[in-house]
Amino acid sequence: MPRTESPPFDRGESDTNVSKYAGFEYDIEDNEWGSSAPNRRSGHRVRVRLVKNSSGIALLPKRLVTFKAGTNRTEVDGYVTLTAAIGYPVDEFLPSGGVANGDYFFIVVGGPALVLTGIASSALNLIPENSVVVGLTAATSQATTAGRVKVRDMTGAAAVLGAEVAGGLGHAMSAKTAANTDADLLLFISTRWD
Question: pLDDT of 151-178, one tens digit each?
């Protein structure tokens, strides 16, 4: 159950001394942070989870990350690298340099969140509004293609199709064309794993 009290810091921030809050979830208004007075974005609420970056690298905003095994969903260990793997977006309001290894920060586990599309112009980047979106394959968790999204592929072998259905991250709240590479996509995060 998410907490209704105030989180230990605002979105767009990180901290090293909040380990006692690791794994806590908070429901907050969907605002555009980073200005002196946050602007309301969608009218929805966003559920964020406080986690520790245990990846060994700085994690960048809007990329999907995976939970580290054995940490009870309190730590993340890198970007999604397999198609339709379960992942959650790093707080989009963090600075462009991301969150340092060892710091605590928010990931979005429900509601609106910005994510990044793939870097190549292809049919995978053609994302109609309200389509289901999944994680995109990458060579390694540190590749520039890691932690990005694509539209769910409903064709192909049963095993591939099963992964695409099970790994649905959420529904697109905006649309993108195939040429919209490395672009922000507003998603409504709603996985069946929450």
Answer: 776 666 555 555 555 556 666 777 878 7
Task: Enumerate the domain spans of the chain.
Answer: 19-189
For 13-39, b/e burial (b = at least 16 CB within 10 A) is: bbeeebeebbebbbebebbebeeeebe
CB 89 within 8 A of CB 74: no
What is the pTM assigned to this prediction?
Answer: 0.79
Phi, psi of 158 (to 5 degrees): -60, -40
First CA to last CA across the chain, in angstroms?
Answer: 10
Question: Which residue reads 């901290």 in tokens?
Answer: 15
What does the angle CA 72 – CA 78 – CA 80 come to, to the nearest 5 degrees? 100
Q: How many residues does the chain have?
A: 194
